[in-house]
Amino acid sequence: ELIEATRGKKLLMYCTGGVRCERLSQLARLVLEKKCPKEEGPAEGVLDEVIGSSSSDAGVDAEIYQLSGGIHAYLEQFPE
């Protein structure tokens, strides 16, 4: 249900940059880019394959943004 509810939509995530955040962001990217079959999540090992791929790859239609310096730098620059 979650995959279908988020497919093709924008997703905003606040991550600290840890390994769990990195893995979740790649999973979200797969779902948003419609690379996961509707009935299942990504196959084991698929996250390792897409880590480091750029949004300029063919077939990418998701809007994915990353804060330069992460959420901590953003909050320091815009404390209010």
TrEMBL record:
Residues 6-79 form the Rhodanese domain. It comes from the Eukaryota. InterPro entries: Rhodanese-like_dom (IPR001763), Rhodanese-like_dom_sf (IPR036873), TrhO (IPR020936). This is Rhodanese domain-containing protein. It comes from Polarella glacialis.
